[in-house]
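Following the same procedure, the fold was encoded as tokens, giving this record:
***
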Amino acid sequence: MITERYIKMCEKAEEIQREWKPQEGDFCIVKGYKKVFVVFQDAGVDDFGVPCLIAGHRCLDKRQTIWLPTQEQLQEMVLEWYQKKNLYDVNDSNTLFLRLRNFWMEGVYQEAILQFGTMNELLLAFVMWERYQKVWDDEKEEWVKGECNGYRH
């Protein structure tokens, strides 16, 4: 489910937005609008040097879009990170589940676990913690360097 909070969390996840390599089927939103677009293709740059995405019958300025990763894409981000850093056995299907469970039940958001209303929000928070040690500050509406509350990275 794509909530207003998830859109704001994605917009403020600058590290993830910078890494985005648009693929067919990706979801994005144009800053300031509420309509979610599905990317058809990355069109490169137009005649004026503006990076463009084709979504439906529209050409969107990539600089004005916010990528809304799916749950699958968020899971892939964590597993790729583990593999790159050689942290955990990414071939063990329980690795991601157990790390997420520990994060949720014992970790960073232990006292505010009800903060996240959707799996998208929870998984994005998990990605931001695992990769960047950042937590979502609902009051400031931004990612901040976080305390781990006993959760082991």
The CA atoms of residues 104 and 110 lie 7 Å apart.
